[in-house]
Amino acid sequence: MSAPQSPVDWSETPGPHAVRPRRTGAWDVLRAVVCAFGLFSLGYWGYLAWPFPLPALFFIVGAPLFAAVVWFFFRSPRSPVETDIVGKTIVEVALVVAAGAAWVSIGHPVVGLVFIVVAAVSGVVQFRREAR
């Protein structure tokens, strides 16, 4: 007597760790640009707002690094700290306002305001996509 066979062909079934390709759309690109510009904004603020060499270098490197670490721990899709939607919103708003305020403090309020508006729109779209 032969053993029963499954109707599924297991050779074509992907394993449990198979990676599905993720589609990258225009909103994902805008989101990446907003994040990169936010980090650039904090570094540029450190360059212009502080005297060179010691305090400036600390803020040129430290401000974007601190923002990136906070974003990774509390806002990133792969963050090690489980955060609800309210916590993610608070972290993102704080980082966006910090980058916008950096532009205002160095004398470019229009750049700061435009950045905050674009970041807010991309943030709302991202949160709506995550809430699905």
Automatic annotation (TrEMBL):
It comes from the Bacteria. Residues 1-21 are annotated as: Disordered. The chain crosses the membrane at residues 29-50, 56-74. The keyword Transmembrane helix applies. It holds the Pfam family DUF2568. Keywords: Membrane, Transmembrane, Transmembrane helix. This is Integral membrane protein. It comes from Curtobacterium luteum. The lineage of its organism: Bacteria, Bacillati, Actinomycetota, Actinomycetes, Micrococcales.
